[in-house]
Every structure is written in structure tokens, then in C-alpha cells.
Amino acid sequence: MLRIWGKIMRNGKILEDTVIENTDSGRDPAARIEDCLMEICRRFDLARPIWLQTHTRDMERYGKTSFHQDHFVEPIRFTSLDIEIIETDEPAQP
Length: 94
Fold this sequence. Notes:
The structure is a single chain. This protein is of the alpha+beta class. The protein has a single domain, classed as Ubiquitin-like (UB roll) (Roll). 27% of the residues lie in helices and 33% in strands. The protein is globular.
């Protein structure tokens, strides 16, 4: 199981948060994270942010990443959308 914590932040404070679970262990881990991000955006009624190489690197290194205004096409009402892996069935990377 993969669990992702999504948080809408403004000035260091959590405005809204949600936890998404993905139990489809047959899919690629990146696709599972993308599915969770899409569900987070649906729950928060947000357009999907632009995923850059820096987001991939942050997820691989730290298990979390943030999206800011420059990652969204539409204006946002918050400082950042943060996502963080809180549980995974994937083996740890050395």
C-alpha cells in the first residue's frame, strides 16, 4: 500500500489536508504517486500542477515535494501544495 499525505499550506500553516491510499501494487511507483496526486487535487478542487524533474528528485531523496504558484496554470489561494509519502510497500533504496 502507498499512502500520501497532501497538505495545502499558507505561510507555514496547514489550511487543509488529506491522506490518499493506493493499493494497486502492480503499477509503477511513479504512476501510483501520480494517481494519488490527482486524487489530492480532485479533493481540494485544484488543477493538476506541473510535475518537474525537481519534484521527482525530491520524492526520491526525501519522500516529499512541494508545488508553488509557478507550478500551477491558474492562480492559487495558498502558498504551496505539499505531498509526502507516509507509508509505502516499496523496498527502501540504498
